[in-house]
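Board work, copied verbatim: AraC family transcriptional regulator
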Amino acid sequence: MPSTDGRSSAPSGALRGHVAYHGYDLRGGPPGVHRGLPSPYLTLIVTFDRPLVMRAPDGGLVERAVALGGLHTTPESIVHDGHQSGVHVVLDPLAARALLGRPASELAGVTVDGDEVLGGLAREVAERVQDADGWDGRFAALDAVLQRALDRASPARAAGRPVAPEVRHAWRRVVGSGGTIPVHALADEVGWSERHLGQRFRAEVGVPPKVAGRMARFDRARRRLAARAVAGAPLRLADVAAEGGYADQAHLTREFSALAGCSPTRWLAEEIGNVQDAPGLAAEDAEP
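↓ predict structure ↓
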């Protein structure tokens, strides 16, 4: 019998505002492939019980107890046998210098073993999360190790310049608007040219403002769709598209195909699991 357990939590102390925790423990389901979708945040996965199995760019499989990924515009493929257990740490890219000792741009488009960036702290956090008692213990273990990462002095962090206030403002506006604010408006707000803003933004985050907006818009739309599916409400893809700043439903569907590798309802059927038998859903994905 499939079982699902999970919990979300905010970190303590100075980590607040930099990261968020989402624990998951899924057992007894059918084998499959989970899509790790693009989002405007870095992803740190710390597993327990068994490692993450990821599809590598060359088509092979790679096992990782701790995985760290930058911003990306294509889905990651996570292969599982019906058992997935870990904590997904959502990391603000503007906190990458402070936590990782490098800008988020150095991880753009890639996923690496945690120890390539965190060194021994990655192995320690994996062991502590594995040995912890329940979600409270796992979140406390993450707090302890990530706080040390935040406090730790490193040559990369000492040599790196702080995030420019203009880039910080632009990033907050992109995410806060759900990706709907135009780049020219961002440039006007910070007093830079669009070209200069694009260069500085990309050097820090790893993608230009327009692509970051695309990720934020997609992330908000897919979360709204998931919330409707979980609640058993009509999906109303056209409404979600309009609310999210897409030109129309067809535009939203094309973005799902590009960023998730499938249609919205196929993604919901795979990940949420409660829409595959609903009549008429496939027709909603078709372009008019």
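The longest strand covers residues 19-27.
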